[in-house]
Amino acid sequence: MAEGRRQAWERQWEGRRGEDFHWYLTEPPKELVELLERADRPRGAALDLGCGNGVATALMAKHFDVAVGLDIALAATRQARELLAGRGVSGRFVVAEAPVLPFRDGAFGLLFDRGCLQAIPRDAWYGYFGEVERLLAPGGMLQLYVSRPDRRVSKLGSARGLKLRLRRLLGGTKARGPAFLSPALIRELMPPSLEELAVDRFQFETVTGATRQFFYGLFRKRS
Length: 223
Ligand SMILES: C[S@@+](CC[C@H](N)C(=O)[O-])C[C@H]1O[C@@H](n2cnc3c(N)ncnc32)[C@H](O)[C@@H]1O
Hints:
single chain; alpha/beta; 7 helices; seven-stranded mixed β-sheet; Rossmann fold
C-alpha cells in the first residue's frame, strides 16, 4: 500500500464526516436504485469500491446476500459501519488499496465504484480493470462513476471559483488532481469480456456550489 496516499486519505476521513465532502450524497445514486429494481439485476455478493461513509453500501446490504465496503481509509470504514448500523443493516468492511483487491475470482455479482478509480494513479488503471474482470462472476456488473471539476461552468463568483482563478493566474493549478478518465479511455481500458449496457454524462452540483462533470457507465461480464 502506498503509505503517503493512505495517510492522506486517512487524515481526510479522521477530520471530517461524509457529509462534509464535496462529493457527498445523502442517498444512493438513482442509477443504483434503478439497477436494483430491474429483473436482471445482479445477485450474490456486492462490493462498494472506495465506499467512503457507506451510503451506497447500506443500500447494497439490503439487496445482496453480502455487501462489502472497501476503502483505503480505516476511518472511512468506521463511519460506514456507523451509518449502516443507523440504517438497520449490516455489511463487511475491508481496508485495502485498489487495484489490489483481496478477494477470490468471480466473488461478486456487482462491483460499484463512485469516485475510487479516479483516485488511483494513472499507471494502475489498467490493473484496476484486470481486477474488475477477475472479481466479477459471469453475468456480473460493474457500475462506474468517474468525475472531474467542470471548468467551463465553474462558479467564478464563488469563493472557491475566485481561489481557483487566482491559483491559475499564479500558474499553480496544472498538476492538481488525476488526469480525466474520458469515456474513450475507459472504453480502451475495459476488457473485451465486459459489454457496455449504458453510458451517460451529467453534471453534479456539489455542496460547495461547484459543478463536476460525471461519466457514468454500466457494464456486464459476458457469461
Ligand atoms: C470521491 S470519494 C467517494 C466516496 C463514496 N464512494 C461516495 O460516492 O460518497 C473516493 C473514496 O475512495 C477512497 N479511496 C481513494 N483511493 C482509494 C484506493 N486506491 N482504494 C480504495 N479506496 C480508495 C477514499 O478514501 C474515498 O472514500
